[in-house]
Amino acid sequence: MSDAYLSLEKLTLAYGDTVAVGNLDLDIGKGELIALLGPSGCGKTTTMRAIAGLLPVKSGHIRLDGTDMTRTPPNKRAVGLVFQSYALFPHLSVYENVAFGLKLKGMRGSELDQKVRGGLTSVGLSSFADRKPAELSGGQQQRVALARSMVMEPKVLLLDEPLSNLDARLRLEMRTELQRVQKETGVTMIFVTHDQTEALSLADRIVVMKNGAIEQIGTPEDIYNRPASAFVADFVGFENIFALDQGKLKTEHGLADPSGALPGEALSAAGLAWRPRMVTLGSGPFRGTVRGTSFAGDRREYLLASDLGPIKAEVDASEPVHAPDAEIAFDLPAAKAAPLKRFA
Ligand SMILES: Nc1ncnc2c1ncn2[C@@H]1O[C@H](COP(=O)(O)OP(=O)(O)O)[C@@H](O)[C@H]1O
Ligand SMILES: [Mg+2]
Fold first, then answer.
1. Which positions fall inside the ABC transporter domain (predicted)?
2. Residues with Cβ within 6 A of ligand 1?
3. CB atoms < 10 A from the CB of 187, how many?
4. 269 in Cβ contact with 340 (< 8 Å)
5. Alpha helices in the chain (DSSP H)
6. Residue 12, strand partner residues
7. Whose CA is nearest to atom 26 of ligand 1?
8. Fewest beta carbons within 10 Å, which of 32, 84, 145, 196?
9. CA distance 119 to 152
């Protein structure tokens, strides 16, 4: 096998007879921050639960740090799990919440005290030790949950949509915080999210999942700029996606010639995709009718009806405004398109 720190090998997970994750292979390096990204129901939580030992494995293996732990009980795995709901003990102080797991392991006295205080310091909560969870904000509660997991010194820390209960500003703050804690401690982290921005900004590598299988693995740049399939392209904001048939765009009204020569790698592609801002408005070989427009601060978005089907375009708000029902020329420059290896 590879020198991966955590390996999922042909992992199949099921609820009764219903397979939720099928034949999943994934190697994760020590100290990596991996984001599992995908729509609701694609199997992210199921995968996390199996790694944590909370869901029996139907077939396949989980290896961590050289040991097969497919059948190891959860408390013997050195895997930490932080959920979306913080699940703190409401009647215990912040200090006691963080100390809880360490005490269960038999830790006492000054060693315990040092660990707990260190954990609270690392998440910026040292002056909140005596508070009860109800006296903290959502973001602070999530920090306690993070400290509580980190003091156990897990080999892998799993975070299942830990920020989705927080408001936008706190989410951004916690994102930075998580990244800092991860870089400082070097803990291997798997972070589950259905929010592409969160995955792009946090992860070393992103694993995009669809229907219980991996659709693409890559760096944030790979996923954002070089989506492998129409599914990934759509998920990361390419809104103009066409299948290719013998070098032509497949549209609702038959095949259309792309504009300009296809780049080399696109010749064998199954499809081409353009972000709205890759569309040229006001010139080009295609014609569209403005069906909708929306102002987005520095940008303006247009929905066009065209012979190619509906087209989403986004231009600088300082450009001339096109009125509803106006007919305008547009271009989908082949040179700018992201080639898709798979179309399904
Ligand atoms: N306890 C359960 N019993 C039966 N099916 C479940 C259970 N939990 C999840 N599933 C199903 O397994 C699939 C994957 O779910 P899940 O891993 O929770 O997705 P995600 O976390 O990506 O939203 C879904 O189709 C879901 O309906
Ligand atoms: Mg989930």
1. 6-236
2. 15, 18, 20, 38, 40-46
3. 20
4. yes
5. 44-52, 94-104, 109-122, 138-150, 168-185, 196-202, 220-225, 230-235
6. 59
7. 41
8. 84
9. 10
By alpha-carbon position, which residue is closest to atom 12 of ligand 1? 20
CA–CA separation, 194 vs 121, rounded Å? 30
The whole-angstrom separation of Cα 278 and Cα 238 is 9
Q: Which residues contact 241 (CB under 8 A, 6 or more apart)?
A: 230, 233, 234, 271, 272, 273, 274, 340
Domain boundaries, the chain: 6-225, 242-340
Task: Determine whether 147 is exposed, middle or buried from the number of CB atoms within 10 Å of its CB (0-12, 13-18, 19+).
Answer: buried
Place of tokens 């299948």: 243
Contact present, 280 and 331 (Cβ < 8 Å): yes
Q: Which fold has domain 6-225?
A: Rossmann fold (3.40.50)
Nearest-5° Cα angle at 72, 53 to 115 = 75
> Counting beta carbons within 10 angstroms of the beta carbon of residue 74, is it exposed (0 to 12), middle (13 to 18) or buried (19 or more)?
middle
The CATH H-level superfamily of 242-340 is Nucleic acid-binding proteins (2.40.50.140)
Q: Per residue in 150-196, pLDDT tens?
A: 999 999 999 999 888 778 888 888 888 888 889 988 999 999 999 99
For the beta carbon of residue 330, count every other beta carbon within 10 angstroms.
Answer: 21
- Tokens standing for residue 115: 């660990």
Q: What is the biggest distance separating any 2 CA atoms in the chain, rounded to whole angstroms?
A: 76
Within a 10 A sphere around the Cβ of 275, how many other Cβ atoms?
Answer: 20
**Mean pLDDT of the region 313-325:** 94
Residue 46 has pLDDT above 60, yes or no: yes
Domain pair 6-225 / 242-340, same fold: no
Atom of ligand 1 nearest to the CA of 15: 4
Distance from Cα 47 to the centre of ligand 2, integer Å: 9
